[in-house]
Amino acid sequence: MQLVTAIIKPFQLDAVKVALHEIGANGISVSEIQGHGRQRGHTETYRGAEYTVEFVPKLKLEILVDDAIADQVVDTIATNARTGKIGDGKIWVAPVGRVVRIRTGEEGSDAL
Amino acid sequence: MNDLMRAVVYRGPRAATALELVPRPTPAPGEVLLRVAAVGVCGTDVHVWQHGMGAAPPVVLGHEFAGVVAAVGAGVTGVRPGDRVVSETASAVCGRCVYCLGGHYNVCPQRRGFGFQADGAMAEYVCSRPAILHHVPPGLPLALAALTEPGCVAYNAIVEKSHPRPGDHVVVIGPGPIGLMSLAVARLGSPSRLTLVGLRRDGIRLELGRLMGADDVIIADEDDAVARVMQAGDGFGAHLVIDAVGVSTTLQQSLAMVRPNGQITKIGWGPAPVGFSLDALIRKAATLQGSFSHTYGTWERVVALLAGGAVTVLGASPAFAQGGIKAAEVQAVLDNIWILVAAVLVFFMHIGFTLVETGLTRAKNAAAIVMKNLVTLIVGILTFGVIGFTLAFGGGSDWLGYQGWFLDPGYFDFGNLTIPTYFIFQAAFAATAATIVSGAMAERTKFISYMVFAAILTGIIYPIVAHWVWGGGWLSKLDTPFIDFAGSTVVHSTGAWAALMGVWFLGPRIGKYGPDGKPRAILGHSIPFAIIGVFVLFFGWFGFNGGSQLAADFEVGRIALTTAFAGVAGGMGALVVVWLTTGKPDVGMTGNGILGGLVGITAGCSAVNNWGAVIIGALAGALVVFAVLFFDRVAKLDDPVGAISVHGVCGVFGTLMVGFFATEGGLFYGGGVDQLVSQLIGIVAVLAFVVVTTAIVFFVIKATIGLRVGPEEEMEGLDVLEHGAPGYAGDTVAVGASFVAEQNKG
């Protein structure tokens, strides 16, 4: 089992979600986060005083998948979250030791 | 133009009298053509139809009338088409006899009366002459003005011919229109007792008599009128009897009920012979006199009495009969209702201040800032009620009031406005001055310290300033009095100078200025809050300025208009300037611009015209932006909401602009510099007084209980550490979750 973590632009969520359902990735957790990548934010003014927007709003997606479809999930997210502009985000994959479904006690692939 | 008109034509005693088409008159030189708006049907019209009374048929009836001038003949001055007028009854007099020359033209032997020898007003048009026309004041309906004639008959009989003294017992016999009018006029002379005598068949007129001032009503066909009058008072009878009936029985009764040396004045007339002995007149040494018609001075006075509401005319319609309509009373009620509504609008502004201040500060301090607004109202209204109102509006010296504590009704007089109405309006203003301070000092001020300060500001400092300008103090007594109509200086600058001192003693919020001294933006957490707050303040400002007229009159609408123009112009001014200087149309700053425009017009909203309002508003809005940048970058005074700029800078600017833009006395309207100098004196005096007093207060607070929260508290947010709970608590960490878990365990 693998945990796929993706940081994407908030308004790309819909496209990513639909595409993931189509390839059979069932569960998805979404959280609102703020952060910056290489660009390190930009400058704005408020009531005449300048300030730097260092952290921009992003969404973090976490998806537990079988090893077999992990690459396909990563490719699907990458395709559907891409706008080609600065700040499209990142995806990374990490192995997972143990997964339990709380309601039934099922473990491993059955718990996905 | 139609040359014919409809008219009621009298063609001889008991001849058919009907609406006929007759030629419409044209005004000869020196004459005025009236379009008749209202004409009374007098008992005399009926008497003419019954037995002539010297009328010369064919003639148009009607002599109690009011109308609008339709045309004037050659040589007429003082009356113009469109004027609302009421006409006397003498169509022509000789102008040469001893009576005319002596001012008693009502008894000129050659007098020609409307509806008798000259065509009267039961027609669409009638010709009169300027010498007997009286202008009807605005607010007096023409239908009521037409009743001036019977009013003059009563006035002539009671005031000109009889001479009742205050304390007299006056009896009026006959509750017809003339008798009822006589009651109303007699009432003005403060009789000890006013008695009306009538018959059962007079019905509603007896009730009207009570409403128009009769103390008692005697029904002569069921009760012994003479005996009843003799029983009243000292038992000698009435000082004055007005006989408004005209049959011999009533004169006989008058003779019986008048006291020795008393007077009987006859207005009612009839052809019947007297038929009884007049010896009683001699034995009692009483005066018997007739009263006929009236003259110019009487008309002017009666028109004034009707317009002023001192004489109430009651009709037989149920609405009128309910209690009478006195213009002055209606005005007093309207004044109080409007000022109470305006006071509530100003109260509503506290919601606006709360929203602006909360929106422009951080979420971690939301509960603390709304709490400071809340306590402003709590402490402000109480201290202003117990102490401040007296300092501001009580009798005293040029410097402060000291008579009439805690709204003691014996010491205050606000004309039409009741003390409660006036107080609520003023209390809302006082709290406004204090709440300005809470915004400037936001996010770092100790709660208890602010509370103490708010009490002193609304209880003592603000009231003294208000006394100087609005309470009859020295600034209102300058040769050219200082003008601050609704409080650009009194309310807004006072709050702002206090805020300035507060911010100075406090220092900036942690993180506002970097090590290099450059200001950093600390973002407000809810721009929608701030802008809804601006809308609410704008809404309330119509009460703030419009209510400061302290009356419900036509001026209020004009004030509302200058207020609206200045507010939106201020928004535009700030929008343009902030856009050009920073590259973006800043939302909060545009909101500040609207508020700046409103503060700017507050002093002159009644004194300037619409152009003045737009210019003052736009400049004030532009000024806000520069002022905010100045305080932020140069003075390094950290004012999170821009209160000092909005209320202080624009308050001064608006107060000063009155000296330029006031259409009466302003420099731009040829009024010279006197007003401008007075404005400067007021601005400087208030600035000096508030800066010195609030500096002392803040210094003492800082040295004793402390002014500022600790750095840890400021960083965590004031909400939890000062008040125990955050302004916004997340549901997931709420108490409920652990409560449910504990319940499940049990």
Number of strands of chain A: 6
Note the main sheet of chain A. Answer: 4 strands, antiparallel
Number of domains of chain B: 3
What is the CATH class name of the largest domain in chain B?
Mainly Alpha
Can you describe this structure?
The complex is a heterodimer of chains A (112) and B (746). By secondary structure, chain A is an alpha+beta fold. Chain A contains 2 helices and 6 strands, in the order βαββββαβ. In chain A, the strands form 2 sheets. In chain A, strands 2-5-1-6 form a 4-stranded antiparallel beta sheet, covered by helices on one side. Chain A has a two-stranded antiparallel sheet with strand order 3-4. In chain A, strand 3 and strand 4 (49-53) form a beta hairpin. In chain A, helix 1 packs antiparallel against helix 2. Chain A is elongated, with a radius of gyration of 17 Å. The model of chain A has no long low-confidence stretch (mean pLDDT 90). In chain B, 51% of the residues lie in helices and 12% in strands. Chain B has 3 domains: 4-145, Alpha-Beta Complex (Quinone Oxidoreductase, Chain A, domain 1), CATH 3.90.180.10; 148-313, NAD(P)-binding Rossmann-like Domain (Rossmann fold); 330-723, Ammonium transporter fold, CATH 1.10.3430.10. Chain A binds chain B through residues 44-51, and chain B through 519-521, 523-524, 578, 581-584, 586, 588-589, 592, 625, 628-629, 632-633, 642.
